Amino acid sequence: MGADGNNQTGELTFTRFDRMCETFPDRTAVVYLGERFSYRRLRDLSERFAGALASLGLQKGDRVMIYIPNCIQWVIAFLGIQKLGAVIVPVAPIYTSHELEYLIRDCGAQTIICMDTNFGYVKEVMESTGLRKVIVTNLVDLLPLWKRWLGVLFDKIPTGKVDRDRQIHRFKTLLNHPPLTKPVEIDPMEDLSYMLYTGGTTGFPKGVPGNHSGMTSYVNDVTDDVAGKHVLEGEDVYIAVNPLFHIMALGLFMSIGLNKGNMTILMPTPQVDAILDSIERYGVRWLLGVPALYRMILDNDRLDRYRLNSLTYCFCGGDVLPAEIYNRWEKHFGIPIYQVYGSTEVGHVCYSRIDKQPKPGTIGLPLGSRECVIVDPATLDPVGPGESGELLVSSPYTVKGYWNKPEETARTCVEIDGKVYCRMGDYVRKDEDGELYYVERSADLIKHKGFRVSASEVEAVLQDHPTVIGACVVGIPDERVGERIKAIVVLKEDARGVGGADLIRWCSQHLAAYKVPSYIEFRDMLPKSKVGKLLRREIRDEERRRIAKE
């Protein structure tokens, strides 16, 4: 499985978008809160923003932190920063000042784009971080006056207090600046396009620098090889639900939306009824979600009120898709859910191919620009056919390593036969057709009585129970058996009369005896990262601290 070299690695991140602006200038590029932004208008706004940044003194290579949720300003800022040759640093808009201070210091950003509602956190860290410019906006800044007025009238627009200062600029005001006229010379391989941060399940997040070619390579793979003839250039509709600061969401937005002259419905928050209404209203054909979103849609008691027959291609990433959700979705909609697999470090890696029914449990085939090998994690020797091992990924187009963290880089990046691979920390196996199957996160394998038990497998079985909406399975150290298996479970609100014995009995009916949990604990919620991933390590550490005190 190797990089085939057929990507246009000389392209910049926004090159195809510019071509679409020439081909479909009046086509709607983005629909945001009912307002349509054409390709012509979006390009003009992004170039005006780039011009304004340049007039403020920003230059090629400068870091600009984007600290706002999904909104049209996010898209304008992303495109404008790229055209200036600066580096976007997108972060979750719900980060606290403590998290924000670390990220700003780590990446060296001197400019930040924030909402008026989270300006307070920015204000707290301005002096300690050396921030020089703050660009403030509101969710409805670029909507027509009458829509903003109605929002204020019905108290639907959250707002925050913003100081007046020479360092503080209004996003909307900057868009009155003349467009950037002098093209910035950018080397796609050498110049950085973005700095993304890992979820940081332990310790502080790690910065992952990415060049223009790194993103362009996998975006082109998805546009040309995965979507291919299935996506209708200039005629299709994609809905962007997941946060754009996540690499999975940003990649699909570029691949299916802006790179193909298509219309994207941009959702500021994942509100299920709003999503379903938008799918019906705009004839959405392409959807990306995480397992939790698909479950929320299926469990919506108003689902049958919406006409969703336009929906054709549904992708899932970010976590393992339970078979129960896959089967319910296909039964209800008559279409499958295709898998996406990737990481912050190497971008998009694998996709289910949409010209055939996805195999249960597969994460798809590697993209042409990503080379995947499966090895024994102890020796880094390749495993045999059909055997599971740790997944390593390499690409000639990506930056290898973390920002200012040589020790972390040395642990994650390894050289094999002259190529540098990133250790993904995931166990997978490959079938005879070259498709990869997710087995387990290496840190989350439970060693019980000499067996390796997949925490994800046990969680999936628990989540198949009709009363369970969430499960987290961890190993508890035990001298006799290595680790005991414990499950933390969240039940549906209307669940009645279900106890631990019932769920253990359920597991016994679906799992080998050595995989059945010894203990079931019920909670109201499970810890999740800011991108919605289950923080299994947090539960495990909590349990081990409890044992240490006994």
Kindly report the average pLDDT value: 89
- What does the largest sheet look like? 14 strands, mixed
Annotation field: number of helices: 16
Anisotropy-based shape? globular
CATH architecture heading of the largest domain: 3-Layer(aba) Sandwich
Cα distance spanning the termini: 50 Å
Quaternary class: single chain
Structural domain count: 3
What is the CATH top level name of the largest domain? Alpha Beta
The structure class reads alpha/beta
CATH topology grouping of the largest domain: Rossmann fold
* Cα gyration radius (Å): 24 Å
What's the number of extended β-strand segments? 26
Helix content: 25-40%
| Uncertain residue segments | 1-7
Strand content: 25-35%
Task: Describe the protein's architecture and organization.
By secondary structure, the protein is an alpha/beta fold. It folds into three domains: 15-269, Rossmann fold, CATH 3.40.50.980; 338-440, Luciferase, domain 3, CATH 2.30.38.10; 449-549, GMP Synthetase, Chain A, domain 3 (2-Layer Sandwich). 31% of the residues lie in helices and 26% in strands. It is built from 16 helices and 26 strands. The strands form five sheets. Strands 1, 2, 10, 11, 12, 13, 14, 15, 16, 17, 18, 19, 20 and 21 form a 14-stranded mixed β-sheet that branches. Strands 4-3-5-6-7 form a five-stranded parallel β-sheet. A three-stranded mixed β-sheet has the order 24-25-26, sandwiched between helices. Helix 2 packs across helix 3 (72-84) and helix 8 (212-227) packs across helix 9. The longest helix has 17 residues, at 39-55. The termini are far apart.
